[in-house]
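Quick start: read one record
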Amino acid sequence: MSLLLTVRIALRALAKNKMRAGLTVLGVVIGIAAVTAMVSVGQSASSLVQGQFQSLGTNIIVVMPARQQSGGVREGNRPTLTARDSDAIVAECSAVLASSPLVGTAGQVIFGHSNWRPKQIMGVGQDYLTVRNWPLRHGGFFTDRDISSAAKVCVIGHTLVARLFQTANPLGATVRIKNIPFRVIGVLDKKGANLVGDDQDDIVLIPYSTVRKRLEGSSFDDVHALMVSARSLDRMWEAELQINQLLFERHRIHPGDPPDFQVQNMTEIAKVLGIITGTMTLMLASIAGISLIVGGVGIMNIMLVSVTERTREIGIRMAVGARPRDILRQFLVEAVMLSCIGGVVGVAVGIGASTGITLAINSVSSGSDWPVVISFQAAAVAMLFAAAVGIFFGFYPARRASRLDPIEALRYE
């Protein structure tokens, strides 16, 4: 008996009991849909994490002052880094592309009758935009001359434009920060929210020397941190090693003494978060895969019932020349077809469910922007697994049918 004829007979047998076949398929549909949806949502979360770290900049390394301790209790950071350290890192570390000092402050920004307190007012160097991989939407950025003269200029984010200027052109306008006038020379391109939902566009960038001298009234040249960009992802560890060696020499730290700085590699944090999201995705897929086993058990039960109901039919087929392997193949094809039909429907339901879940998360959480990711690899694996479930759980009923005695089967009522 040809495979095509076997498939036609299997379809006819399934069509006779549409309700039973539909309920049998339902378990597989739920399993496949759950696996596809959970893996897709997990990959969406992973893409969101990776995208957020990419938005921080290209191959970021952060250098911060070490924390002081007294009696085993941390007392905070001491000022040990300077803008000259940043310049030396760029000049002497071959694996480093750019570096910028960071000095944070806070205050209200006033324009006309409007005022706004941004989340970040940062004093930075001229290479900050290179480090952060953050282009300008309009205008320009401050130069070495602006930094050396502590010029009263600033670059603002998209949120500041919306809050203070509405439809007015911000370029060339004067805003006041701590009662000091600043001229707006540029507008940053829009970046959106970060990983924890904070608005990255709610920011004002000022030369770090201006923040120190004019806003904080300090004559010291220490900075809060250094943000460094490696030349490539492959050279991150090389850049980190070079930075450590350079700062050990510049800060005259003797062997065995604790350093007065700490270097943090953002790529390592991204990898850890990637492992966490990947593990969660695998766990969710494994839990969802249990329903496939349940669906397989349902297929086996229904096929056993079908063998019992069609015992006389099996006897007639054997009497007219059907071999045991033909009977085995017929029932096995029916089980596989049930699984595959459930797989196709389950993939479609899973894709729709993952899209709906992602859109629902975005609508509930205004600060997040989860990408819609459809895991076709997971769908393909789920389909193969569905076929395997059909073969595995359908083999016993099919084998039982093929071993029936033709005479006993003909006598079955």
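Residues 79-259 form one domain.
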